[in-house]
Amino acid sequence: MATLDMFTLTVPVFSRALNNLLHILQKAQAHVEAKQLDPAALIQFRLFPDMFPLARQVQIATDMSKGCVARLAGVEIPGYADNETTFADLIARVEKTLAFIASITPAQLADTADKEIVLPLRVRTLTFSGLVYVQSFAIPNLYFHITTSYNILRHNGVELGKMDFLGQ
């Protein structure tokens, strides 16, 4: 039986998704500039009052990605201030996350499918194997928050299509 390649399950998947998010944010920035709109209106927009605004959606998507590979690799998770207020800030955050993810090597993620991942949350602590963490927590959360970012921008008139989400 072949060994599960945790690098292939994470780094390329996160990189592709974040590169697509980067593209979506760049299109949103161009849209706001072309239409002379207040960028804060989109950055703070929520699809529903109990949902996070666009800025927080991007923050969580990047946190999921960097946190997952860092936990698996056993390295410190880069800390970000969560103070992005412009599209340039959000784009820089995604680029910074992509650079961190690119720094992780296959050797760092070797044999991490069974590694215990303990994730303290506000109300409880979750414990996963590395594989279950990737497949049932990190990847679904990443796509949820990127999809919500896409939907916020599309709802507000940014000309996005399915291929912007999926990438080339």
TrEMBL record:
<protein>
    <submittedName>
        <fullName>DUF1993 domain-containing protein</fullName>
    </submittedName>
</protein>
<dbReference type="InterPro" id="IPR018531">
    <property type="entry name" value="DUF1993"/>
</dbReference>
<dbReference type="InterPro" id="IPR034660">
    <property type="entry name" value="DinB/YfiT-like"/>
</dbReference>
<dbReference type="Pfam" id="PF09351">
    <property type="entry name" value="DUF1993"/>
</dbReference>
